[in-house]
Amino acid sequence: MVKERARILVVGGGYVGMYTALRLQRRLKRELERGEVEITVVTPDPYMTYQPFLPEAAAGAISPRHVVVPLRRVLDRCRIVIGEATAVDHAKRTATITTLATEEEGTGGQQLTYDELVLAPGSVSRTLPIPGLADHGIGFKTVEEAIGLRNHVIEQMDIASSTRDPAIRDAALTFVFVGGGFAGVEALGELEDMARYAARYYHNIRPEDMKWILVEASDRILPEVGEEMGRYTVTELRRRNIDVRLQTRLESCADRVAVLSDGARFPTRTVVWTAGVKPHPVLAATDLPRNDRGRLRCTAELSVEGATHAWAAGDAAAVPDVTAGEPGRECAPNAQHALRQAKVLADNIVHTLRDEPLRTYEHAYAGSVASLGLHKGVAHVYGRKLKGYPAWFMHRAYHLSRVPTFNRKARVLAEWTLAGLFKREIVSLGSLEHPRAEFELAAGGKPSQDPPHNPKGSS
Ligand SMILES: Cc1cc2nc3c(=O)[nH]c(=O)nc-3n(C[C@H](O)[C@H](O)[C@H](O)COP(=O)(O)OP(=O)(O)OC[C@H]3O[C@@H](n4cnc5c(N)ncnc54)[C@H](O)[C@@H]3O)c2cc1C
């Protein structure tokens, strides 16, 4: 039983948003039935993306629909609003929301009032003012980007296979990834593996014809798996002929030439930017306190510092790491923390509504697993270090156990099993990005957009 009627607003439908709402709807089931509590989730997409599966989706090992979780089905006792929070005035307990409808009606944002706020908009790619990056860079945070990149890589192979111009061929077969964290290393590892496999179906492309380059500003990659496993990953990638450049930065990719700080220049059509994340910019449009890196200042109970009835977790929140034994240390922005924080956050909202004492968030980082392509991986979990097939197997087993809902687990497992029995998919469906192009041509009109990744920009 709660003290008084509560409207809970959850901003974001990712890890934190979905898991918080899921736990709230379970723990407040009776209150929801009696109408004492109302949970509204505002999020731009009707699904939660299981980001650790994006590299495998890019490689074609998991279909895009299975790396996302439909929010309306999972959160069936919550109100789902597809839209974006553009501002929050917590002093007035009001959030401004834009939706497709408000855009179409031209009425501006709509105001939502709440009693408890969960702010979990996650992070966005941290970019730098590098010439050409905004025009040519490709991000790797969403399922659309992962599938777009897969289509793009296969399309580059098609271009290279059909052109007679060696310069075009060389640029099409050069793939530059910037950032040696999880996202960059896994995406590169999976895509290189997929392209190497696909090359056997091209009469004039050999795996050695492709240049895969990983550019990392620091002196190590994959810090999440520790120094030794990071060094192993460098050796393993170099053994696969991947050009790993440490202590090197991308200085420009203007005119489709990647210029690196070590003086190297690579004409390329593919620059994938995975050089870190920063908190979502919507946080700046709130009256809640942020730290110097833009994350919301939080307590170990996951409330926002100095603000009652405002909660945050995940990539957007600076949560003290109470296990670090060092004051000022924050929890890293990763799924391991986001998932566990969401549970404590939901419990603390329930405790607040019931006037009970709050729980403290406490979790010592357990280590990480990373996939580097089919049957290849690296792991450092609870002090155990694994390489190659065992690490890859552990990666799959771990993420299968973590991906939300039994339905998704079954579908992903079925896909992996079928992929073991049949050959890998190497088809590109890039034309899905422009579904009206063919009809527009047939109807005598002009296609509204150039075909994607057209070799010389001509149609
Ligand atoms: C390719 C890749 C691989 C990764 N692999 C791993 C891994 O193996 N292990 C690991 O621990 N971590 C991994 N991570 C990191 C992990 O996915 C993130 O730390 C985690 O998703 C953070 O959860 P979150 O809820 O804070 O943000 P998200 O899960 O990103 O959710 C944020 C949500 O807020 C929504 N949103 C944004 N703006 C607004 C707004 N204005 N209004 C309303 N909603 C908004 C977004 O659309 C999204 O739904 C990976 C990340 C990537 C990109």
From TrEMBL:
Q: Where is this region: Disordered?
A: 439-459
UniProt biased composition (Pro residues): 449-459
Q: Which InterPro entries does the UniProt record give?
A: FAD/NAD-bd_sf, FAD/NAD-binding_dom, NDH-2
Listed GO MF terms: oxidoreductase activity
**Origin: domain of life:** Bacteria
EC number(s) on file: 1.6.5.-
Which residues belong to any copy of the FAD/NAD(P)-binding domain?
7-338
Using the UniProt record, name the top-level EC class of this enzyme in a single word: oxidoreductase
**Keywords, alphabetical:** FAD, Flavoprotein, NAD, Oxidoreductase
- State the family it belongs to: Belongs to the NADH dehydrogenase family.
- Per its record, how is this protein called by name? NAD(P)/FAD-dependent oxidoreductase
Q: State the organism named in the record.
A: Streptomyces coeruleorubidus
Species lineage, top-down?
Bacteria, Bacillati, Actinomycetota, Actinomycetes, Kitasatosporales
